[in-house]
Design goal:
- The chain is α+β, with helices and mostly antiparallel strands and about 100 residues long.
- It has a domain of about 50 residues.
- Strand 1, helix 2 and strand 2 form a beta-alpha-beta unit.
- It is globular.
- The relative contact order is 0.26.
Length: about 100
């Protein structure tokens, strides 16, 4: 991996660990991501990089059996205003069907 990618991973992981000190979640989980930024990357690569970085920290594994639901949205903005909002929601057995 390129040095810049590794540097970004370290920075992201540090920010995640500042906000979450619990054990990795076991699932099943719904992950909702609201991304705001310049939009210079493919959305699947952004999500994949995030999942790879926080694997074993936010959740046990990023297998589909752990995270069967994923929602991602992106809004264009200037780099200085870039931010990510990530919500992790446990899926309970009593959850209503989505459709």
């Amino acid at each position: 991996m390129p040095k810049a990618y590794k540097d970004n991973q370290r920075e992201l992981l540090a920010k995640v660990k500042e906000q979450y000190q619990g054990p990795p979640l076991e699932g099943p989980l719904r992950v909702e991501m609201e991304l705001q930024g310049e939009g210079r990357a493919d959305i699947d690569n952004v999500v994949g990089a995030f999942f790879d970085t926080v694997n074993k920290v936010l959740w046990e594994d990023d297998r589909i059996s752990i995270i069967p639901e994923l929602s991602v949205s992106w809004t264009k903005c200037k780099k200085i205003n870039s931010c990510w909002y990530v919500r992790i929601i446990p899926i309970g057995e009593a959850q209503e069907p989505l459709f």
